[in-house]
Amino acid sequence: MTLKDMEKVTSNKGVARNMSIKYKIAFITLLVALIPMVVLSSLMLFFYNRAIMQRADKQIEENIRIMSDRLSSVLQNGELCSNNLTIEFGNYYNDKSLKQVTRDSKVTSQLSQSLLIYNGISSIVFIDCYGRFFSSDPGFLNKSDEIINSDFVAALKDEGGKTLMMPVDDNPFDKEDKEVITMGKHVLNIVSGTHLGYLFINMDKDYLIESSQSEISYYFLFDTNSDIVIQSNIVDPIFTDEELMDSLLETGKKRISYNKESYLLAREEIDPYKWTVVGITNLNKFNVTGSDLWFILLTTGSFTAVLLLVSVWFSANFVTRPLKVLHDGAEEIAEGDMSVRFRFKTRDEIGRLGRIFNYMTQRNLELLQQVEDEADKKREYELALIQEQVKPHFLYNTLDIIIMLIEMNRSKEASRVTHKLASYYKNSLSGSDEIVSVEREIQIIRDYLDLQTMRYGDKFSYEIDVDEKAYNSQIPKMTLQPLVENAIYHGVKNKSSSGKILVRGRIITCAEAGIEQDGDNLIVELSVIDDGVGMAEDELAKLNALLSEEDAFDSDEKKALEEARITDHDKTKGGSHFGLYSVAKRIRLYFGKSYGAKIESAEGKGTTVKVYVPHGA
């Protein structure tokens, strides 16, 4: 039975089954999305409003408790301070051995120390039985007569040493920028019970409520006469209604309404002073109203339903089909067919994704070819390096020197040459590591130069000056030997007088070397410097241009260089500089195109070859 036959059999099994898939998706999606949305909206409104009320009630109760504890703590500190000062002052005035000046100094010092000990106290004033005035705040000294003759002092004369809360109104200790609450005490001698003076403890009103400021909550402190002692900064119009404000202590409600706004009340009494803290929170500012939330939910639900319908329609027609093409093509690429390409005319995400797939496929092809080419190049240059390492003429000449020294009965020198030769080949040929430390590379060069100075005698001298901080950096093995060999055979050897070769290494920045590179800004510069015959400007420019190219060796040039190296040892592109080309290319292969080598030379003055490798690689 064919696919068309099966469609005919099932065509009569119901309209719903035969409905287009995009309509099925749209209908089911809307049904599944809208029903939970309605239920969720209703539940959200109910639980949200209940949670907001509980949270608001809990928050204001907690704030009231904290504020009450704070006020109670400060008031207790004031009472404790007055009691301690009463004891201290009694000791001072009972000690007849104290001079008046000493006693006055001790009283003043005790007032200052009490400010540091008891939190919330802004100033302390003491008027002793002789009429002397002491204050921790120098600003009260100018109004000492006013304070001594105030109603506060008169109110304490008949009190028996209790600490009292002084009236809020007409407080002589108030300033223009600071209002205070004052506790007063008639100080009596604890031994004889005689009058010692009057003590006033002042507490800053702002300090008492500074931790309870809020844009939606306001706090009031009422004294025992139901008068407002402290109120926070008021910005709500409800507090302009004096009748409502007077009823805050009388009403037992936890919620009141004013101008269609709801307010939540909380109260806390401060024992033992019988003062009351009242907090008011504007619930309309604290909570999003139910009507607003309904509007938000309905708008969001309608808009979401439309978006769902439109998105399902477009996804079925414009997204699913191209995605299927991408899926099938990706499977073919995954199976190894790199010839697959996508040709989408659109420039949307799917079109861009198709072009990205095309780019990735092409790039993978290029990278595979590049890896293969670089592997071939790496093996080719490593083979060339080994050929450069085992120079038959160098080995033969060194063995001739050893034989000559033995025939001349200079066995110690022959032994020294033999050891140097063995050390050179041990360091240069032993081990399978392609990358070695700069320190080991320097040892290879040192052995090589020692052998060459034994061979050529006074023809040249050498010096090695490499920063020890560069020793642990990595470098391809036998990088410097071809450069030193070139310095000998094409530099100082052809010089009429004795020459010198300097191998120098230092750590520099990429900017100093002219290298553009992200990340670490430090590199290692290794230089082989000779004062030999140098080279002409055109030859120097040609060499540097060739070394700076990203791919200095194409297949034809490599073939030409190899033939030149074999047939003519002295040609510029032959054996004399093949080692230099090999060094530069190997550095690029291992560390990237930012690194490599360059030459500086002046005819008749010498040549400098510099190579650059990463620091600490």
TrEMBL record:
Cell compartment(s), UniProt: Membrane
Gene Ontology CC annotations of this record: membrane
Entry-linked Pfam families: HAMP, HATPase_c, His_kinase
Domain called HAMP: residue spans: 317-369
Entry keyword annotation includes Phosphoprotein: yes
Catalytic activity field: ATP + protein L-histidine = ADP + protein N-phospho-L-histidine
InterPro entries linked to this entry: Bact_2-comp_sensor_kinase, HAMP_dom, HATPase_C_sf, HATPase_dom, Sig_transdc_His_kin-like_C, Sig_transdc_His_kin_internal
CDD domains, A to Z: HAMP
GO molecular function, one term: phosphorelay sensor kinase activity
Superkingdom as given in the UniProt entry: Bacteria
Keyword Kinase part of the UniProt annotation: yes
Cited Gene3D superfamilies: 6.10.340.10, Histidine kinase-like ATPase, C-terminal domain
Keywords on record: Kinase, Membrane, Phosphoprotein, Transferase, Transmembrane, Transmembrane helix, Two-component regulatory system
Residues spanning the membrane: 25-48, 293-314
EC number: 2.7.13.3
Leader sequence segment: none
SMART domains per the UniProt record, alphabetical: HAMP, HATPase_c
PROSITE patterns to which the protein is assigned, alphabetical: HAMP
Name of protein: histidine kinase
Biological source species: Butyrivibrio fibrisolvens DSM 3071
